Amino acid sequence: MTERLIPVHQPLVLVVDDQRANRELLEAHLDELGYEVVQAADGIEALEAVAAREPDLILLDVDMPRLDGIAVCQRLKAHPVRRLIPIVILTASNDRDMRLRGIAAGADDYLSKPFDARELLVRTKVLLRDRFLNTRLDATEGVLFALARAVEARDRYTIYHAERVGRYSEAIGTAHGLDQNDATLLYEGGVLHDLGKIAIPDAILLKPGPLTEDEFAVMKTHSIEGERICLSLRSVTHYLPIIRHHHERVDGGGYPDHLLGTTIPLGARIAAIADAWDAMVSDRPYRRGLQREEALRRLHANAGKQWDAALIEIFIQLLDDGLDHRVASSHLAVSA
Ligand SMILES: [Fe+2]
Ligand SMILES: [Fe+2]
User: Fold this and answer.
1) Measuring CA to CA, how many Å separate 231 from each of 138, 163, 220, 225, 322?
2) Residue-level pLDDT at 333
3) Quick one: which ligand is closest to 276's CA?
4) pTM for this prediction
5) Hey, what domains does the chain have and what are their CATH numbers?
6) What span, in angstroms and rounded, lies between the C-alpha atoms of 46 and 32?
7) Residues 98, 100, 101, 106: is their CA dihedral positive or negative?
8) Which residues contact 256 (CB under 8 A, 6 or more apart)?
9) Closest ligand to 190 CA?
10) pLDDT higher than 50, residue 335
11) Residue 282 Cα to ligand 2 middle (Å)
12) pLDDT in tens, 257-314
């Protein structure tokens, strides 16, 4: 047999139906298509099977004792990871209402009984292809986050800096009225903001003293380098504005593009505040962190020059409410 880079993975399909005959029929079809099959006789068994071993696809009957298919679908689609498992609702061919309920519960497709072998083949193939693309996208994101942690690990002075920038950014975004999705994006963008520092040589990144002008010019390339690393990855396009523009200033004096005011993307304006605050109050190789009062004074003094004044107001309010103490204790909890 030829060696392969990635072991061939036989897709695992979970068949959920309270009628034994239906399960056996589907299993026979799926066997022929080369899938591995696990069976469950009701909703509770289905959830147990998913918890024991995550399937690549679920064929799900609706009317079942104990827990019906709609409830199973809703639960799985509310789960942060399991929501990516494609679910096909099994319905009687004329039951339009049931189909709609399935789709409303988050099902990806439906299949009519009695089953048609060709239809089963086509639908499962399409969904499984999407499933594998999704899991690979997920993996790409995971690699980037690992890189961001690697950047921190090179420099003990910035350990947890990215994590804290993420948490501050998320809090500012939420207080600014953004929804949960955007807040999560801000957190992740914050974690990734300095990813480009992976391209900065140790002699500059770890220098135990102020940088020369030339060295600073190299250091400044980290925002474009970060963007370059992520540019070809579709799953991270949303973070690009944060990565590229987190060193812009609202007075146009920042880098790399000298953007002015609200032409700086919102995420970057938020991350800039989070980043600067954390840098000010943390120790660096060549200086101690500032006292909280002094850092607050600088926030006030540079609102409208370095940072968006309205966002600074929000951030100062959050600090008054103890945000920095909460962020500091949360990353201690993460590291414990
Ligand atoms: Fe940076
Ligand atoms: Fe930073």
Assistant:
1) 16, 22, 18, 10, 36
2) 52
3) 2
4) 0.68
5) 12-134 (3.40.50.2300), 155-335 (1.10.3210.10)
6) 22
7) positive
8) 220, 223, 224, 244, 245, 247
9) 2
10) no
11) 11
12) 999 999 999 999 999 999 999 999 998 777 889 999 999 999 999 999 999 999 999 9
Name the E strands within 93-159: 109-113
User: What single-letter DSSP state applies at residue 256?
Assistant: S
Ligand that comes closest to the CA of residue 191: 2
Q: What percent of the chain has pLDDT over 70?
A: 94
What are the tens digits of pLDDT across the range 97-108? Answer: 888 888 889 999
Residues with C-beta atoms within 5 A of ion ligand 1: 194
Report the run of H or E that residue 327 belongs to, with start and end: helix 323-335
Residues 6+ apart with CB under 8 A from 317: 175
**Whole-number Å distance between alpha carbons of 174 and 188:** 14
- Give the Cα separation of 95 and 91 in Å (integer): 6
Compute the distance from residue 44 Cα to the ligand 2 centre, in Å. Answer: 47
CA of 45 from ligand 1 middle (Å) equals 49
Q: What pLDDT sits at residue 73?
A: 95
- Give me the residue label for tokens 């339009």: 96
